Amino acid sequence: MSLHVESQGSGAPLVMLHGWGMHGGIWGNVVPQLAQRFRVHCVDLPGHGYSKEEGGGGYTLGSIVEALSQYYTEPVAVCGWSLGGQVAMRWAQLFPAQVEKLVLAASTPCFVQRADWQCALDTDTLQQFVSALTQHYQSTLKRFLVLQLRGSEAERELLADLRSRMFSRGEPDMAALHGGLQILRDTDLRAVLPQLMQATLVIAGERDMLTPPAASEYLARQLPDARLVSIKGAAHVPFLSHPEIFVEQITGFLHE
Questions:
Q1: What is the pTM (predicted TM-score) of this model?
Q2: pLDDT score at 159
Q3: Catalytically annotated residue among 208, 216, 241, 242
Q4: Which of 4, 18, 41, 236 is an active site residue?
Q5: In CATH, which superfamily holds the domain spanning 4-254?
Q6: Which residue has the higher pLDDT, 226 or 179?
Q7: Closest CA to 50 of 13, 6, 11, 101
Q8: What are 140-148's contacts with CB under 8 Å, separation 24+?
Q9: 82 is annotated as an active-site residue
């Protein structure tokens, strides 16, 4: 798997991992703000944006982490949003010497509901995305955007912003989209959390319907060294809806 990475700024390295169907250009104005303090690396995950080659080993959480571990050989701080948060957690588990600190933004150890896990997306909703993806993938991605922003302050403006960014680096590979949905459906990292010894900042959107605040609260309780920040008025994309608070929290945390 190949990786396209765009970097700016100077200082300690900070790797930014986007969510499903997106790319490294999704972070908006928080990147130049963070780049005033850090060397910010915005990754296009394999099959997304300009990282078009997937390789032949299948699209899994492990294969994505393997690509990241080969690209970054020195310790970094990692900020993962949504699916990118699950990638970050697995990276921290498998290659703990590479990940110094974690920021988990609107993420969860388990995206879909299970018998003992209800603070998540119901399985039928995710299956609808899987079924619709092949026939109408652009409209499926746009529906996913609506879910991410529902309930957020300035919802319409944010939706227009996200839609303009979505295909700005071309169309994601279908295999990567399907593989990403399989990761969202199958991944359950709850048992892994006590193993992650990195200091962690968990950022939740108060109105998030994809990764409910209860999931962020669970992360903060189960991780050995974590604290939770809930952003009022934010849904699933707090870095776009409340960029100043997002940057302030990350900057303070990474400078501790």
A1: 0.92
A2: 85
A3: 208
A4: 236
A5: Alpha/Beta hydrolase fold, catalytic domain (3.40.50.1820)
A6: 226
A7: 6
A8: 141/21, 141/166, 141/177, 142/166, 144/20, 144/21, 147/209, 147/210, 147/236, 148/82, 148/210, 148/235, 148/236, 148/237
A9: yes
